[in-house]
Design a protein that fits this description.
Layout (H helix, E strand, L loop, with lengths): L14 E5 L2 E3 L12 E3 L2 E5 L5 E2 L4 H8 L1 H11 L1
Antiparallel strand pairs: 1-4, 2-3, 4-5
Length: 78
Amino acid sequence: MNSQRTCRSCSSEERQSFGGEVALHFHGLDGLNKPIVWVFPEILVCLNCGFAEFIVPDEQKKLLRNPTEQQKESRAAA
């Protein structure tokens, strides 16, 4: 995931990967009308300071760029 051997925040080498699930949602009242985008990434966590990072896959990035597409797809599937 990341070729850097040390934490970007504290430079510690004490980092470990974990499987994760993250629900990304849009801010504000307008965000209530947009769907949650689920991501199941590998999360790299610094065990010293707690800094964490992950990569959002292309398919989920598409949904974040254009959330109305996900709404259209779910309506079409129903």
